[in-house]
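Tutorial handout. Part one gives the primary structure; part two gives the three-dimensional structure as tokens.
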Amino acid sequence: MIFDELDLNPELLESIGYMGYTETTPIQEKAIPAILSGGDLIACAQTGTGKTAAYLLPIMNSISEKRPSYTHTLILVPTRELAIQIDQQIQGFAYTLNITSLAIYGGGDGSGWDQEKAALSRGADIIVATPGRLISHLNMGYVKFKQIEVLVLDEADRMLDIGFHDDIMRIISYLPRERQTLMFSATMPSKIRSLSKHIMKRPVEIALEMSKPAEGVIQAVYMVGDFQKLPLLNSLIADNPSYQSILIFSSTKKKVHEIVLGLRSKNYLVEGISSDLEQKEREDRLLRFRSRKTRILVATDVLSRGIDIKDIDLVINFDAPSDAEDYVHRVGRTARAETSGVAITLVNKADILKMHRIEKLIGYEIYKAPIPAFIAGEHDTRPDHRSPSTKPKKGKFKRRYNQKGMRDEA
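Part two.
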């Protein structure tokens, strides 16, 4: 379906055209008409499927027609990065519209507090907020939410995972009972359904099948010991000098620091990002990575969802993710928009069960690549073990793997 077929006003369609969009994604095709009808909605769709536009476009369509003098929509999100991204997307779609928005999140130096207070007390069309920061403002008594018409919970499953259930319920207590509530989630666990029963009225449900990693993603797993991970990581990067954008996921902030130090010893342009950093520094590091000033970014799961970084050549899971769905989100950072990319996962003995769950979810076994002999040494007792003198050639890794097998690329 093309956007012109939807019941959106001409100004908004013009903005969509300026943004370069012509055809809807499946979630947009299903969700936009449902939201325009005015009812509550639960939508299950992965990151990267266009779900943000799926709710922003009908909301902005309503605002452009009503021109309210109060805050019309509240969007709650789990992370400040996602809040910033959504606010930027609103500004993009508002190219031809007079719609105001503000992202409200903690972790900065406090300089934005007065601006946030002004928007919350006087009214901005759309407020995008993390729960903790918003509650800090609500406690001060000046927030005007009595006329909110739409509440959006984006990445609802992640917010509940983080422990925001009580915060969400407290925020909702400040909102009108008569409102439209939209819940978007990458997964649909029982706690999502339980929450929906308390805050929604006869919601329409849209559930897109969990997508598999894109066909353009070359996937492989290395079975390694912890002591082999960093040498193998260095080898993978050294053997692929053409990869100019590399994203590495680690399970802990401590490991992020260790990986960054290990890679800097090889003179790579590498930076780490985690919740330990002030917001400004996190934004600066993301900007340098997006603009290719930083070649390698090492991150905790804060980046696995909701961050739109395009043209990533290589994603490496230094640690296998605990949730199988998170694997799909992580490797989805590469091979976006029908491009190609590589996703590598380093798996120790403790993570074997996690990989079994991942393979069950995606429906096929991921190729198990042999550890380079010069790293494996005497510790590799598998049948495909090679002599330590057989060091792989540059670029040897670049193969195309899928559930049917593998072939060397030309």
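Part three, for discussion. The CA atoms of residues 56 and 90 lie 7 Å apart. Residues 378-410 have pLDDT under 50 and may be disordered.
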